[in-house]
Amino acid sequence: FKAVATHCHVSVNQVIRVFKEIKYSRPTTLPPVLSIDEFKGNAAGQKYQVILTDPESHKILDILPKRDTTELAKYFAQFPRYIRNNVKYITMDMSLQFRSVMRDSFPQAQIVADRFHLIRLITFALERVRKAEQNTLSNVSRTFKTNKRILTKHFKALTDKEFTKLMDMFHYSPRLHRAYVLKQAFSRVLMFKDKENIQWAIDQWLSLVASSELPEFKSLLKTFKFWREEIVNALTLPYSNGFTEGCNNKIKALKRCAFGIQNFERFRNRILFINAKKGHATITSHVLPKSA
To answer: Residue 7: which domain range?
Structure first.
């Protein structure tokens, strides 16, 4: 606001008054591909807000005040059924709450788990093994602590020096070796594109997890069973939460620059203003003076 006021030679209060008159209405239609995610907004006494985007046209559709199952259901119920039936795919992270709401609101749509969050599950499981070995093998704990980034690199991308350090960790910890093999094996699952082969590859990988005797990976058996359809969709369909996550990063930058925005309507307007050229804003009253 201060930057705009300086540029337009008006007071900050006048800029704020004008900005208050910018109204972004609820979208009247929904796209064939809909993306939903949460972000830490801290506005209007709520810790989290919800963002809806169109990942194909790269447009922010709306910002919802709170992550509440009832409120989300009420919001989507405002759209006629024929509009909701136009939504064919919904991308999201692996949130049980979001999945429940979206299944009820969009019975015709396929839910697509976000690939990034899927891969992160395997990376986190590997990291839990590394931390456990670091705490157990205290005499060589520094080896596991300083070389943890090597574990996240693809095996073929390792330098000779990194390969040597990796072998040192495997020498001290056969458990970490098994966990690393599981991670690398999952990267081969991602190579398949058709549904039949992906399902076969997932089953083969889960059998490796079951026989690995790694408690840190056992929770993935339940996750993959519970999210089977959404995971297969993630690996066969070209949709993801990538654009939405990018919007969340812009929102974080906005919050830092503004030192937080407590007023939700102002916060919502400012976020939707990011997509102003593609948005649906109307100015209801006074505008900036001609000198601006």
So the answer is: 2-114+240-283
**Does the residue 81 lie in any domain?**
yes
| Residue 184: closest CA among 223, 227, 229, 154 | 154
36 forms bridges with which residues in the sheet?
52
Helix, strand, coil percentages, rounded to 5, for the chain:
60, 10, 25
pLDDT for position 41? 87
Q: Which of 65, 179, 165, 86 is nearest to 127 (CA)?
A: 179
* C-alpha R_g of the chain: 24
DSSP letter assigned to residue 52: E
Do residue 104 and residue 77 come from a single domain?
A: yes
Both tokens assigned to 3: 């930057």
Residue 59's nearest CA partner among 242, 278, 254 is 278
- 111 phi, psi to nearest 5 deg: -95, 130
pLDDT tens-digit series, residues 164-194? 999 999 999 999 999 999 999 999 999 998 9
- Say whether both 99 and 69 belong to one domain: yes
Predicted TM-score of the model (pTM): 0.86
Interaxial angle between packed helices 242-258 and 264-272, expressed in degrees from 0 to 180 and rounded to the nearest 10:
130
Helix (H, G, I), strand (E, B) or coil at 135: helix
The closest alpha carbon to 103, from 69, 68, 80, 78, belongs to 69
Q: What is the mean pLDDT of residues 61-72?
A: 94
- Residue type at position 221: L
> Cα dihedral angle (211, 213, 216, 222), rounded to 10 degrees?
40
User: Dihedral of the CA atoms 13, 17, 18, 21 (nearest 10)?
Assistant: 160
- Look at 76 and 255; give whichever has higher pLDDT: 76
Q: Which of 29, 49, 53, 27 is nearest to 40 (CA)?
A: 49
At residue 24, the pLDDT reads 84
